[in-house]
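== Sequence entry ==
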Amino acid sequence: MNPFINDRTDEYGGSIENRSRFLLEAIDASITEIGAEKVAVRLTPYGGLHELPQYDEIEETYAYLAAELGKRGIIYIHLMDQKSRGSFALPDGFLKRFRTNFNGIIILAGGMDKELSEKYIREGLIDLAAFGEAFIANPDLTDRLKYGYELALPNRDLHYGGAEHGYTDYPVYAGKS
């Protein structure tokens, strides 16, 4: 969807509608096969990993996608904020603007903590907060959040290493609160 990467000149390139076409056609095909209630999508607005450049139409692109996906009645949209990965953050107000175009379930991942997730849920900006990396380092994350226990930090050097070490061997909380 990024025009710096998608430089096609056919019906899948150029305008926002054309650059969004492949995603929406894949969503439509999935809905046809299994029903909208079983279809979701993960989007990374403002994603810039691997030096992916920003572009002027980001807001328009995701407003269009939110509206189109809302029309299709998919079960949820999972948004990723890549700030925690060293990339661009979702700008202030983005979630509110996105929510005006999509009234279905929104899940947000990326650098979430208890306070921020509760704030976004309370404000109606998201419905669920995702804690992917935090769960890796904290197998008892729900208890740690519930009781205010300190969170362990994951060792990112072990991610995608192909073994259990760094994924399944973090201990549960043993300290005192």
